[in-house]
Structure to design on (130 residues):
């Protein structure tokens, strides 16, 4: 600690404000870090950090994958008396292996799960990927 500061501290020991004036005039009013960036420091942020506010970049847009189960396909094929079905034409992307096939069917889709392929082949059907 410098000699000057030591002398000042010793001189003001026991005083209330240490020679800095009244308490109200010593307060800076700002907070730490980015506190007040939306209130009293807003103009400073706009001037000195121009890209701080707002969103930046494009949002990631994922396409939702619509799926259909073997259970539903089995019911649909039996109701309509089909031997071949293209689930992509019905608006579905992926075939899941839930349920069982009771009739041999050729199913066309964009993708299949491994379990779905096993069950389709076990029912003497075919899984064709588009």
């Amino acid at each position: 600690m410098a000699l000057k500061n030591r002398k000042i501290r010793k001189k003001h020991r026991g005083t209330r404000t240490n020679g800095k004036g009244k308490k109200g005039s010593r307060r800076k009013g700002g907070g730490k870090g980015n506190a007040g960036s939306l209130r009293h420091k807003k103009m400073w942020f706009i001037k000195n950090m121009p890209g701080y506010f707002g969103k930046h970049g494009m949002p990631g847009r994922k396409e939702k994958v619509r799926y259909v189960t073997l259970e539903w396909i089995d019911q649909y094929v039996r109701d309509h008396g089909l031997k071949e079905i293209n689930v992509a034409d019905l608006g579905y992307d992926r075939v899941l292996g839930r349920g069982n096939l009771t009739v041999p069917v050729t199913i066309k889709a964009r993708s299949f799960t491994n379990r779905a392929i096993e069950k389709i082949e076990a029912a003497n059907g075919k899984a064709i990927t588009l």
About this structure: The chain has a mean pLDDT of 87. The longest strand covers residues 106-109. Helices lie at 3-12, 23-26, 42-48, 70-80, 114-122. The beta strands are 67-69, 84-86, 94-96, 106-109, 111-112, 126-129.
